Amino acid sequence: MKGPVKDEHWIGIDLGGTWVRVAVSDKSGHFLAKTSEKVDKSSARAISDQMIRLARFLCRKHGFDPKSVKGVGIAATGPLLQEEGVLIHPTAIPFDCVPITKPISEDLDTQSCLINDAAGAALGEKMFGAAKGLDNYAYITISTGIGCGAIVNGTLLLGKDGNAHEVGHIVIDYEGRLTCGCGRRGHWEAYCSGSNIPNFIRMRLRDEPRKDVEESLLLKMAGEDPSRLRATDLFTAARKADRISAKLVEEIGVLNAIGFANVINAYDPSLITVGGTVTLKNRAMILNPIRKHVKDYALNRIPKITITLLGDDVGLYGAIAAALTYIPQC
Ligand SMILES: [Zn+2]
User: Which terminus of the chain, N or C, has less C-beta within 10 A?
Assistant: First the structure.
């Protein structure tokens, strides 16, 4: 990677449901500094105030004037109104409307732009990662929620409000047995995202023989209390060959394969990269069942499916890529 371009700084902000990450970068995607904190959810305005404070902290710590910042890109958990620069009824943040770009632009006296985090990640992967040179590509994140960004014929798809392909909310279970964080039933995210896998486990354990459940390592890891189950317990127990856990990991893989098949059928990508905490912590257990089952549901030719090269920083690269793409540079 090239060295920093002198005196030209860009700020990227990745706002998730739990963490906010901030990086200062040059225009080649070389990070000069980065930091993160848990999202301050004390008020809607506190979120942009926290971003401003972290951005100013990085500028001060590395000895440059915030006025040298060319622009700020914010890749955020959705849904959002992209043109207005606000989050609107975000599923992971408990406010109806969260202003982002206006307070940041006013305080830092620079331009800023907002993009859905998965759409931003797709842009970041194309500019800095595995999708360089590809015209048809998708990024899928399996994390607290599930999201997707798609580039089709070289164009990043955004939609009227910037919420194109909210694939976490496609219906994969028409019986709607589980309720999603958005309030609707049967959505992919309600079964397979980090925050909802425990609901899926509890629902499925009710169907298994009581004796098998009571003897499972999975239940022991939750202190014999299903209400305390975490997604990470399932993957840990499966890694230790717990029979029920391995079975449920495979079932989650089938549901993920249905979601991936929908993306393949809709966008016909030549590559899908996958990120998000659930994926990055359980790479083989997430990817292998998808690769095995996706052909059962996809009509289109199956693309290469691989882990993102940008790791945990994919959201930050996406925010920088959005700033470089949407903010005029002169
Ligand atoms: Zn939903």
Answer: C
Percent pLDDT > 90 in the chain is 89
| Ligand 1: centre distance to CA 325 (Å) | 29
Strands 19-25 and 9-15: antiparallel
List, for residues 95-113, the tens digit of each pLDDT value. Answer: 999 999 999 999 999 999 9
User: Cα(188) to centroid of ligand 1, in Å?
Assistant: 7
Lowest mean pLDDT among 34-43, 62-71, 146-155: 62-71
Q: Which CA distances in Å does 110 have to 19, 27, 72, 73, 321?
A: 24, 16, 7, 11, 17
Q: For residues 233 and 219, give the distance between their C-alpha atoms in angstroms, rounded to a whole number.
A: 9
Q: What is the rounded distance in angstroms from the CA atom of residue 330 to the CA atom of residue 264? A: 38
Q: How far, in Å, is the centroid of ligand 1 from the Cα of 55?
A: 32
| Confidence grade of residue 68 (pLDDT, cut at 50, 70, 90) | confident
Could you tell me the distance, in angstroms and rounded to a whole number, from the CA of residue 163 to the centre of ligand 1? Answer: 13
Q: What is the pTM of this model?
A: 0.93
The candidate with the shortest Cα–Cα distance to 50, out of 25, 22, 28, is: 22
DSSP 35-58: EEEE---SSHHHHHHHHHHHHHHH
| Displacement of CA 85 from its chain's centroid (Å) | 19
Nearest to 246 by CA among 278, 201, 186: 201
| CA–centroid distance, residue 183 to ligand 1 (Å) | 6
Residue 1 DSSP symbol: -
Measured between alpha carbons, how far is 75 from 276 in angstroms, rounded to an integer? 14
Measured between its terminal Cα atoms, the distance across the chain in Å is 24
Average pLDDT taken over every residue of the chain:
94
CA 10 to centroid of ligand 1, rounded, Å: 33
